[in-house]
Amino acid sequence: MNLDGGATSDRPGDRVSPAARGAIVGLAAGAVTVGVAELLAGFAQRATWSSGTPSPIDAVGGAFVDRTPPWLKDFAVATFGTHDKAVLYAGIAVTLVVLACGIGLLALRTARGALVALALLVGVAMAAVLSRPQAAVTDLVPLLLGGLAGMWALSRWAAPASATVAAVSMTEPRPVSRRVLLGSGVAAVVAGAAAVAVGRVVAGGARAGAMARAAFVVPKVAKPVVVPAGASLGIAGVTPFIVPNADFYRIDTALVVPQVDPAGWSLRVTGLVDREVTLDWATLLAKPMQESMVTLMCVSNEVGGTLNGNAVWTGWPVRELLREAGVRPGADMVLSTSVDGFTAGTPLEAMTDDRDSLLVVAQNGQPLLPEHGFPVRLVVPGLYGYVSATKWVTELKVTTFAADQGYWTPRGWSALGPVKTQSRIDVPRDGATVAAGTVAVAGVAWAQHRGITGVQVQVDGGPWVDARLGADATSDAWRQWVYEWPATSGRHTIAIRAVDATGQPETAEPAPPAPNGASGHHTISVTVS
Ligand SMILES: Nc1nc2c(c(=O)[nH]1)N[C@H]1C(S)=C(S)[C@@H](COP(=O)(O)O)O[C@H]1N2
Ligand SMILES: [Mo]
User: Fold this and answer.
1) Residue 127: how many CA atoms within 13 Å on its side-chain side?
2) Which residues pair with 344 in a beta bridge?
3) What does the mean pLDDT of the chain come to?
C-alpha cells in the first residue's frame, strides 16, 4: 500500500488535491483501526465468548440503542420496521466514514491533532464496550491494538515520505498520482471491510449464541420455587443460601467455553431405547418446565472447600424424555455427552425416579451462563457433578455400566458418585482472631437428596453441641447453620459434623477427594482476644 506520496506522478497534471489526499489517508487509517479491532474482537469472542469481548461496532450500536430516547426508537421502528438494525449499522458506517475523512483533513493542519482525535474516538468506543453487560477490561484489548495500528497508519501516511518531498507541506499538492492514491485508499478500505467480515465469521456461532441467549425469555413454571423464610440466617460471611450465578463455582474440562447456538442445538437419545428421539431447542422450550432447588457439588471439593453452590434450576424432567424414547430392559446407566466430548455416567434410576433430574435451561431465573452449560445442561439431585451434571449436553445414551464409562472413571474416579454428607464452617475463618464474647460460628451443611437434620459443633474436643439450623427448603439443597459460641480468650479448635435424615452423622474418617469424595470433620483454629 502506498499512500505516502513516494510514487511520482505519471503526468504532472494527474495530481490530487490535498483535501482529497487527506480524506483518503483518513479513510485508510480508519479502515486499519476498525479492521484490526473487529478482527481481533472476532477471535477474542470465539476464544472466550462468555466474558464478552464484543465487536466494538456492536458495542457502540448497543450502547447507542440503550441510550436512544423512546420517541426515537418508536420513530425508527415505525419508519424502518424490521430494518431498524440495518439502518443503525448503515448509520454507524456513514458516521465512521465522515469521522475518518474529518480526521484525515485535520491531519493536513495538525498531525498531532489528528492523532488525538483518533485516540478520542477509540476512547469513546472503549467506553461503549465497557458499558455492555458483563464487560471485562480485557474486552478493550482489540480496540487498543486497533487504535494503535490506526495511529501508526495515520502518522505514517499523513507525513511527508521522503527527503525529496519532506519540504512539501501537506497543504500543497503532493507528487502522487490520482491512480496510485485512489487505488491505495480503496485497497485500505476494502482490506478493513474484509477484516471486519472475517472477524464476524470467526466469532460466528459465539455471537449467534450470545444473541440467542440475550433474547431467550426463561419459561414460566406452574409452581415457582419459594425460598422458605428463615432458610437464610442472615449471618455476615456465610455463603448466600442461593448463590448468584456470577459467583457460582465452575468446574469443567473445557479450555475454551463451548459456544453453542441454540438454533443448531439438539439432544439425541440413543442406545437401549425403543426409538431414538432427537429434541431440539424449540421442542424443549414447548415442554412443561418446572423449577427445582438443588445444591450442585463437585467431587474434587476438599473438606472445608467451596466447590459447591445452591441454585434454582428451570428445566424439563429427563424421565419424561426417556419415557418418550422408551428405555429397554437391561439398561442401568445413562451416558450423557457434551458438545466438547465430556461424558458422565449416571445411574439410570437417578434419571427415572421421582427426584426430578432436569434438562436445565435456566439458573436462578436467568438463561444459563455459557460457562454453566448454555443452552442446556443436566442437574441431578444427590450425585456429584462429574457423574451427572453434563453441561452443553447433546446426547443421552441409555446403556450399562458394564458397557460404558464416564470421562472421569478411567482417570481414577468412582463410577458411582453419590454425594457424601458434609458440613463447612464459613465464619469465623480458620486462623482468625475474634473478640471474646458471643461469636457466631456458622456455615452450610449438605446431604443432597437425603437432607440435613442436624449440625453439631465441638469446641476443643469437648461435647458435641447442636447448632441452630436454617429452615429446610428441600432435601436436595444445603442448609445454613449457626452456633452462638461463648468465646473465652485463648486459642481454640472448632470442629463440626452434619447429621443427615437417615440419622447418620458425618464421618470423622478423613479421605481425599479421589476416588469418590473427601470426608472428615471440617475443623478450624481461632484465637480469641
Ligand atoms: N461438559 C462438561 N460438563 C460438566 C463437566 C465438564 O468437564 N464438562 N464437569 C462436571 C463437573 S466435575 C462438575 S462439578 C459440574 C460443575 O458445574 P458448574 O461448573 O456449573 O458449577 O459440571 C459437570 N459438568
Ligand atoms: Mo466436579
Assistant:
1) 7
2) 336
3) 89
Contact assessment for residue 176 and residue 21, using Cβ atoms and an 8 Å cutoff: yes
Nearest CA to ligand 1 atom 1: 391
Gap from CA of 76 to ligand 2 centroid (Å): 49
**pLDDT value of residue 4:** 46
Own/partner pairs, 166-170, CB within 8 angstroms, 24+ separation: 168/5, 170/18, 170/21, 170/22, 170/107, 170/108
Give the residue ranges of DSSP H helices in 216-347.
281-285, 318-325
What string of DSSP letters covers 193-240?
HHHHHHHHHHHHHHHHHHHHHHHPPPPP-SS---PPTTSS---TTSPP
Average pLDDT over residues 426-443: 97
Q: How far is the CA of 391 from the centre of ligand 1 (A)?
A: 6
Q: CA-CA distance, 519 to 329, in Å (whole number)?
A: 36
Q: How far apart are the first and last CA of the chain?
A: 74
Beta bridge partners of 433: 527
At residue 496 the predicted structure's pLDDT band, cuts being 50, 70 and 90, is very high
Backbone angles phi, psi at 445, to 5 degrees: -140, 145
By the 10 Å C-beta count (0-12 exposed, 13-18 middle, 19+ buried), 517 is classed as buried
Ligand 2 (ion): residues with CB under 5 Å are 251, 298, 385-386
Sign of CA dihedral 61, 64, 70, 74: negative
Q: Copy the grid coordinates of residue 49.
A: 465468548
Q: Separation of 336 CA from ligand 2 center, angstroms? A: 15
Instruction: Check whether 174 has a pLDDT greater than 60.
Output: no
Quote helix, strand, coil % in the chain, to nearest 5: 40, 25, 40
Alpha carbon nearest to ligand 1 atom 7, residue: 252
Distance 177 CA to ligand 1 centre (A): 62
Ligand 1 site, CB within 6 A: 248-254, 296, 298, 338, 340, 342, 372, 385-386, 389-392
Q: How many residues would you count in the chain?
A: 529
**pLDDT-above-90 percentage for the chain:** 70
Ligand nearest to the CA of 378: 1
| Side-chain-facing half-sphere of 125: CA atoms under 13 Å | 29
84 Cβ neighbours under 8 A, 6+ residues apart = 76, 77
Q: Going by CA atoms, what residue is nearest to atom 6 of ligand 1? A: 252
Ligand nearest the Cα of residue 260 is: 1
pLDDT of 168 > 60? The answer is: no
Distance from residue 522's CA to the centre of ligand 1 (Å): 24
- Cis peptide preceding 367, ω within 30 of 0: no
Stretch 183-199: mean pLDDT: 88
All cell numbers assigned to 517? 469424595
